Amino acid sequence: MQGFDISKVSAWLVANIADVTAPFTVDLIAGGRSNLTFRVVDAVGRELVMRRPPTGHVLATAHDMAREYRIMTAVGRTDVPVPSTFGLCEDLEVNGAPFYVMGFADGVVLDSAQRAELLAPELRVPASEHLIDVLADLHAVDIDAVGLGNLAKREGYIERQVRRWTTQWENSKSRDLPAIDEVARRLGERVPTQHGVSIVHGDYRFGNCVTDVVNGRISAVLDWELCTLGDPLADVGYLGVYWSDGTNATLSGNDPTPAGGFMSYPDLLERYATRTERDLSDIDYYVAFSCWRLAVISEGVRARYRAGAMGDQSLDEPMTDAVEGLSQRALEAMRRL
């Protein structure tokens, strides 16, 4: 299997992970568009998950397995639900790239309107409430107490992010899109005062969580590769990129809210503001920033897919229309300010 050396990784698992029994069966988990994620089942049925970078060329700052492992291990000491972490391998002789192993979280990743049908209508509001409550809990974590105080610079988050993703755009783009440059200029001209310093997940949404569909609660938050320290409202604005309120359709199909029955985005904002006492009057800035950043990321994913670095190439090409739509939506949000 591309990206997984079964013999060498199996030997590493037996030597480094307690209570596992060879042989192992391995499957690439569907939906992986960035880091490759594998479900590993041992001889007695114990389920694990292994994550590693894409198999081709990636940007220098991307896909740091040790960093992601450190973050998940630290957050795992709090009330924020994350999979247990079991081991990190940085020896390139084992699998050609660093990887880490974590527990398998039971539940459903609600990454489409079709998947939403697995969640009863009467549980969709409770699941929405718990999604925003978990985010508020993450933003309340004492970063020094969990050992993440030196993860990144604490101040100037938006300025740093605008510089970073402008550079990523220059390194990843396969075409010129003036809207991307226009949004970057507007973002730089109107940076809001940072709302404290928190752990920022960077990609927080239903599609990056495992949901317990029996009880309507988040059982695990996944995909921490974009996590950093900074302005917590960036995560709140990012939820607005995906959230669908009736006829306000999302720009992609990887969110469950178009199925209906979930909280509205304004109600999410009100709940978050009540929980955290943060001022959300500039939330359109953060929605615009998130749309713009996601457009840049989407262009990079598209480029890596075309280069054959995304694992299973039988998957449809991702992000074919998203970049243009996201950049236009970012401009619209900036104009509302």
Describe what this molecule looks like in 3D.
The strands form 3 sheets. Strands 1-2-3-5-4 form a 5-stranded antiparallel beta sheet, sandwiched between helices. A two-stranded antiparallel sheet has the order 6-9. A two-stranded antiparallel sheet has the order 7-8. A hairpin with a 4-residue loop joins strand 7 and strand 8 (217-221). It is built from 11 helices and 9 strands. The protein has 2 domains: 6-103, Phosphorylase Kinase, domain 1 (2-Layer Sandwich), CATH 3.30.200.20; 113-335, Aminoglycoside 3'-phosphotransferase, Chain: A, domain 2. The mean pLDDT is 90. The chain is globular and about 60 Å long. The protein is of the alpha+beta class.
